[in-house]
Design brief:
- The complex is a heterodimer of chains A (575) and B (387).
- Chain A is built from 26 helices and no strands.
- Chain A has 575 residues and is mainly alpha-helical.
- Chain A folds into 2 domains: 249 residues, MetI-like fold (Orthogonal Bundle); 274 residues, Orthogonal Bundle (MetI-like fold).
- Chain B folds into 2 domains: 234 residues, P-loop containing nucleotide triphosphate hydrolases (Rossmann fold), CATH 3.40.50.300; 110 residues, Nucleic acid-binding proteins (OB fold (Dihydrolipoamide Acetyltransferase, E2P), Beta Barrel), CATH 2.40.50.
- Helix content of chain B is 25%, strand content 34%.
- In chain B, strand 4 and strand 5 form a beta hairpin.
- Classes of the chains: A mainly alpha (575), B alpha+beta (387).
- Chains A and B meet through helix 1, helix 21 and helix 22 of A and strand 1, strand 7 and helix 4 of B.
Chain lengths: 575, 387
């Protein structure tokens, strides 16, 4: 069609074509080499010298041997179904209580959720191990009541234990996502149902639930696929109890022997990648339906809160318990651990053992200070680069007519389906074999973070640009602005809050990233989460806890800034 | 002869819609003279906004030539396509497109700040204040633009479009987002302003009242073509085809056969289902030719009882009555079938047969062929809107 061609001609002339091409090259460079290396290695394996071996299906086939794959798949499925079901159940009740009822203390749940954005998962998992593990208060104090005196009343290092911790880990985000779904639900739809003579119960069943179902389902799928790829809980909780899932098995293969069996790890990664890709394809299908049902009028609905009456105090009890279990207990226990000379349960004697020593030594420990510095630098570099690239990408994707725009969108969103552990293996394999000495530097981490978190930049900026009326930009062109001047003068200022929201969010993501970093870190480019993970494995509880508390305090400030920004500017949360 | 400010030739624009090509504009020819207020009037989807956007440079035509102020801005052969920001045109968008992150002052100053060579700060301030004074917004100069009401935003958009003294002003349904009362008030203001500034204006609307009230010339557009161009009175009283007549609020048609041969503008007799009628011919007609007569709802007079007219009479029953304030509007059923509209200041009886009659000079006779050219959608789709 001619008009298409001529529109493109203009875009090549004013440089938008060149910009698209540049973006495509950068994105492709980030995504394709690790992916390609992963697939090639899974089909060849490596020899002792690191060179590729001969073509073989051996690695794909061998994981099925000895019934190992069967139990891996079973564990993975059980783990992700269980934890996403728990997270969904908790999050749904919380969202309903906060958004639609007059339950007392609702703000506490929001506070818990915002805090959860700040605490590194690895730290949160450790806190839970301290509380629910063999030497924790749960087993030591409550166990004896039920006749168990060996501290093995509740086995945390089992599938149910993993499900519990992962479910707790995810429920705050489910709560935040479902809250916004409930907030954007037009109450007039419910009112219309009441006016048609339906009871509140019938209204929920006949109108509210069917309309909200796609949105709820999409949240469920997202949590499912995320726990499918989760690494922290399987590694810290599962591995000590010999419960392996796909993600932790990749880690085991990669760290068991030196040099690791790259073929085996790659084949396992490819399996994981395929499973994740299928889940994400499903997720986007459901999300499409959810958006079709989405009430565009979006903001400022005033919902009638359900008066709980006598049930109000029961709801309050739930809120208080939820707040205590998900925030106060784990964080409190972490602080308790941090101020002790040696780890012990609270007792009058333990009070004599209190000390600031852990904080002092954590701040003086060179690995911690350099890890904190590295993490902050990487976080700022990665989020700035991602947001700037995706700003232009989202704009071109929405406004340009070049065929490349779709491709840019796909390539930038593809890493969403990459489990971090898989990307870690891929990046490691590719850059290890590159003659450029990039392995062991901060640059390799930066490349990894750029790839892993690029989709989040798109997810914050794309809706912002999409909701901007094209007429605002056309008015700038009519006023004499070139397309780029229009972007600087109109599009950029009007999507600024989405830019900063995404920037802060990626900052938080990088600050707590463990899974990808664990493969790419070597002495010299250590980062916070990996340092915590290593010290935990060395058993330096007091220092880990002290440093974790300091780090959490810093991240909480950032999380609060992020939260107030998306709250004030009505930006949709993407996790 | 007056200077031509806008010339469009052979303009064609196609879109892909649901895997098929739709020709939104077909071979459009149009000239607008300097200082004229020209309105493109047509139903939604007729291509009028696309035409406007092609002139602005926001759409790229598939074919044709567009010249603004004697300078090509688009030409298919040899290829020339001036981007919007170099066309020197002012435009007011349907949504006004007021930039919410800029103050009232900055919105108007934006086009001036982009000018090269750069304008001095003082010159910009003077110009902006002048423009804001023209639209009576000087008190709001330093307010955030988001505080303005709909009518004020519309005036701000106008000031922004006029501040760089464009040779051509494009207005895309600028009144359609306002409520009825404000719209009528702004109609006066818009016309006064255009006279004062003297800028050549291309206006797009689907509201025939707006078009008639504002324009020096009106072009009726349907199905991607211009059906008729003329001054508002000609368009209203002398429509070129039934489609045009219907779009301008005349749904009353009657078919007939010419009994006389007569030149255009003369009265002739016709044989119709309602008996013998007389009317004014739109074009010269031959005896025996099939014609369509249009009768404006307000042209029908009540035939008092006992009085008799020779031809041009109707016998009707009232179906529905709307009281509009300045007139009563009735939907009436004629004796032999067709349903017409009748507007009168009289209160008609709700029951019984009412006699009416139409003076011959109010009956506009168009050749039947004029209707066969029309796109079916324009013809059928409008019955619902106007009836």
């Amino acid at each position: 069609m001619r008009s298409g061609q001529v529109g493109r001609l203009r875009e090549w002339k004013d440089g938008r074509g060149l910009a698209s091409a540049f973006l495509l090259v950068v994105l492709a460079w980030l995504v394709l080499p690790p992916l390609g290396t992963l697939i090639v290695t899974s089909l060849h394996g490596t020899t002792q010298t690191g060179a590729l071996g001969r073509f073989t299906w051996h690695y794909f086939a061998s994981v099925w041997g000895h019934g190992q794959m069967g139990s891996l798949l079973g564990n993975t499925l059980g783990f992700s179904v269980g934890s996403s079901a728990l997270a969904l159940a908790l999050g749904m009740v919380e969202a309903w209580l906060v958004e639609r009822t007059d339950a007392p203390g609702r703000g506490l749940l929001t506070a818990t959720a915002v805090m959860s954005l700040a605490v590194p998962y690895v730290l949160y998992t450790m806190a839970w191990i301290l509380v629910l593990g063999n030497n924790g208060p749960f087993n030591q104090w409550i166990g004896p009541w039920f006749g168990s005196h060996n501290g093995r009343w509740f086995h945390l290092d089992s599938l149910p234990g993993m499900v519990l911790v992962e479910g707790f880990l995810w429920s705050p985000l489910v709560f935040l996502l479902l809250s916004s779904v409930l907030r954007n639900f037009d109450p007039r739809l419910e009112e219309a149902s009441w006016m048609a003579g339906a009871t509140p119960g019938q209204t929920v069943r006949g109108v509210a639930l069917p309309i909200l179902l796609p949105a709820i389902l999409s949240v469920a799928l997202l949590v499912f696929v995320r726990s499918f790829q989760a690494f922290e809980v399987p590694a810290l909780v599962g591995l000590p109890g010999n419960v392996s899932v796909l993600a932790s098995q990749v880690y085991v293969i990669m760290t068991e022997f030196a040099p690791p069996d790259y073929g085996q790890a790659s084949a396992m990664s490819v399996y994981l990648l395929i499973a994740a890709a299928i889940c994400f394809a499903l997720y986007f299908r459901v999300l499409g339906t959810a958006h079709r049902f989405h009430m565009v009028s979006g903001k400022g609905f005033r919902h009638q809160r359900l008066r709980l009456g006598p049930w109000r105090w029961l709801a309050g009890l739930f809120v208080g318990l939820d707040f205590a279990v998900k925030l106060v207990v784990p964080l409190g226990w972490l602080i308790w651990t941090a101020v002790l000379r040696s780890y012990q349960l609270p007792s009058p004697r333990a009070l004599g053992d209190l000390t600031w020593e852990n904080f002092r030594s954590a701040l003086q420990y060179p690995n911690f200070t350099s890890a904190a510095f590295h993490t902050l630098v990487l976080a700022i570099l990665a989020s700035t680069a991602i947001m700037l690239l995706t700003w232009v990408a989202a704009w071109l994707g929405e406004r340009s007519r070049l065929p490349a725009r779709r491709l840019v969108d796909y390539v930038a969103s593809a890493p969403l389906a990459f489990p971090a552990i898989v990307l870690g293996v891929g990046v490691l394999e590719f850059y290890l074999n590159l003659p450029v000495p990039i392995y062991g530097s901060l640059l390799i981490l930066l490349i990894g973070y750029l790839t892993l978190f690029m989709p989040y930049g798109m997810r914050y900026l794309q809706p912002a640009v999409m909701h901007l009326s094209p007429e605002l930009e056309e008015a700038a062109q009519i006023a004499g602005a070139s397309p780029w001047a229009g972007f600087r003068g109109v599009v950029a200022p009007l999507t600024r809050s989405a830019f900063w929201a995404g920037w802060l969010f990626i900052l938080l993501l990088v600050a707590r990233e463990l899974t990808l970093s664990v493969f790419l870190v070597s002495p010299g480019n250590e980062v916070v989460a990996v340092e915590l993970f290593d010290l935990w494995n060395n058993g330096q509880l007091g220092q880990v806890a002290a440093f974790g508390v300091i780090w959490t305090a810093v991240m909480t400030a950032i999380a609060l800034g992020f939260w107030s920004l998306i709250h004030r500017r009505d930006i949709e949360l993407n996790v | 002869m007056a200077e031509t400010m806008l010339a469009i030739q052979r303009l064609t624009k196609r879109f892909f819609r649901r895997h098929q090509v739709v020709e939104v504009i077909r071979d459009l020819e149009l000239t607008v003279e300097k200082g004229t207020f020209f309105t493109l009037l047509g139903p939604s989807g007729c291509g009028k906004t696309t035409t406007l956007r092609c002139v602005a440079g926001l759409e790229t035509p598939d074919q044709g030539e567009i010249a603004v102020g004697g300078r090509w801005v688009f030409r298919d052969r040899p290829w020339l396509d001036v981007p919007p920001h170099r066309r020197g045109i002012g435009m007011v968008f349907q949504s006004y497109a007021i930039w919410p992150h800029l103050s009232v002052f900055d919105n108007v100053a934006y086009p001036l700040r982009l000018k090269r060579p750069r304008m001095s700060f003082d010159a910009i301030r003077r110009k902006v204040e002048e423009a804001l004074a023209t639209v009576d917004l000087q008190e709001w100069t330093h307010h955030p633009s988001t505080l303005l009401s709909g009518g004020q935003q519309q005036r701000l958009a106008l000031a922004r479009a006029l501040v760089s003294e464009p040779s051509l002003l494009l207005l895309d349904e600028p009144l359609s987002n306002l409520d009825q009362r404000l719209r009528e008030q702004l109609r006066f203001e818009l016309k006064r302003l255009q006279r004062e500034v003297g800028v050549t204006t291309l206006y797009v609307t689907h509201d025939q009242h707006e078009a008639l009230a504002l324009s020096d010339r009106v072009g009726i557009m349907m199905g991607g073509r211009l059906l008729q161009v003329g001054d508002p009175e000609t368009i209203y009283f002398r429509p070129a085809s039934p489609a045009v007549a219907q779009f301008l609020g005349c749904p009353n048609f009657l078919e007939g056969t010419l009994l006389d041969a007569a030149p255009a503008g003369h009265t002739a007799r016709l044989q119709t289902a309602l008996g013998m009628w007389r009317g004014v011919l739109a074009s010269s007609g031959q005896r025996g030719e099939r014609c369509v007569m249009a009768v404006r709802p307000e042209a029908i007079l009540r035939l008092s009882e006992g009085l008799e007219a020779e031809g041009n009479t109707i016998e009707a029953k009232v179906l529905v009555h709307n009281f509009l304030g300045h007139v009563h509007r009735y939907q009436i059923q004629l004796a032999n079938g067709p349903i017409w509209l009748w507007e009168t200041r009289e209160r008609l009886p709700a029951a019984g047969i009412i006699g009416g009659y139409v003076p011959a000079q109010e009956v506009w006779v168009m050749p039947d062929s004029a209707s066969s050219e029309e796109p079916a959608a324009g013809w059928e789709g409008l019955k619902g809107v106007l009836g």
